[in-house]
Prior knowledge:
Layout: E1 15-16, E2 19-20, E3 22-23, H1 34-47, H2 57-77, E4 85-88, H3 91-106, E5 112-116, H4 125-134, E6 137-141, H5 151-157, E7 162-168, H6 180-189, E8 194-197, H7 209-212, E9 216-220, E10 231-235, H8 237-242, E11 253-256, E12 261-263, H9 277-293, H10 295-314, E13 319-321, E14 331-336, H11 341-350, E15 353-354, E16 356-358, H12 363-368, E17 374-378, H13 385-402
Parallel strand pairs: 3-15, 5-6, 5-7, 7-8, 8-9
Antiparallel strand pairs: 1-2, 4-10, 9-10, 11-12, 13-14, 14-17, 16-17
Helix pairs in contact: 1-9, 2-9, 3-4, 10-13, 11-13
Bound molecules: 4'-deoxy-4'-aminopyridoxal-5'-phosphate.
Amino acid sequence: MEIMLENLFPILTQQIHGKKLVYLDNAATTQKPVAVIEALNNAYTSWNANVHRGVHYLSQVATRHHEEARQKVADFLGAKSSDEIIFTKGTTDSINMLAFSFGERFVHEGDEIIVSYLEHHSNIVPWQMLCERKKAILRVIPLRDDLSVDIEAFESLLSTKTRLISIAHVSNVLGIINPIRQIIQIAHRHNVPVSIDAAQSVPHIPVNVQELDCDFLSFSAHKMYGPTGIGVLYGKQELLNQMVPYQGGGEMINHVRFEQTTYNTLPYKFEAGTPDFVGSYGLAAAIDFINQTGRDKIARYEEELTTYMEQQLAAIDDVVVYAAGQPKAGAVSFNVGNIHPFDIGTLLDQQGIAVRTGHHCAEPLIDYLHIPGTVRASVAVYNNKSDIDLFISALKKSISMLS
Length: 403
Ligand code: PMP
């Protein structure tokens, strides 16, 4: 199967250092299709005006687009209601909002929050900050030898003190897909809600919040062909309703009096200030692009590509692929002998290949592996086998230069 989309992404047609650009840094951010770029352009050239409460025409158009985008996200995620969709700045902002708003309401001294060893810093530090504020305790699910999360160890961490589990759907370093359905079922048997960091899953595989029965879920538009600066926090209505607002300001209030202020209903209670209504329109265009391409088709195609890439990598002497052989979505991490990942990344760049090197904002996982970092190559729907072949031959050349 081949999805020929390269010409829909203008940035990909350029040369880097005189070589065809092969963009394999999609886990960091994806490139944008013309439809998304045009949507942003259209917003500023045709209907830009501040949303909500405006009586004039443009404000009403802008409000309609913003609220239609919210409904589009709700449909995309399979949420019960668009009231469960909070627009944020991105995954980091979503998790910080959750840690504050959930934490203020439900977490007290001695309570526990559970994360795993393979989390992005965005799904560690906000919980550490909450634990520090509340004198609560952060528990960490260890990994098995094959780097999958240890489900038995997870179950033994659960107790009457556990208030929340927050875990990545797909690891941004290893690309492995965590068994979140099983994790959610186990957690719910103990009446513990689960937050899913879906930054690396929503772009690659179908995600349905009602099927998963997750309580919260976060993602960023920029990793799924949408604009930067906008993302989503999904939350079950009954939980969101009980939580305290994250920020104060316009939009999130019902009435403001110096004696007492009352808060707006969902989702506005969590959206203080002017929302990124141009971003939400761009996100809606990205969702249209994904839906038109086909979510199942994207998942199958990318799985083929990552499997092919992993096989090609594993066939090179001295290459260690992490979590080899496990089902992956998007990303593959590796190292070559004792060569520093940065050196590989630099030589690949000179050959037009964009990959990421380092700790990938997951230092605890990198320490756990006792390595300085990895080289991570990550695919999107516009990549193809010939990109992988160019990458592999450039990698072989880099290795022979460095050996
Ligand atoms: N979680 C995961 C798993 C990620 O991959 C990322 C981005 N690398 C984030 C959270 C943070 O996303 P953002 O920088 O868009 O807020």
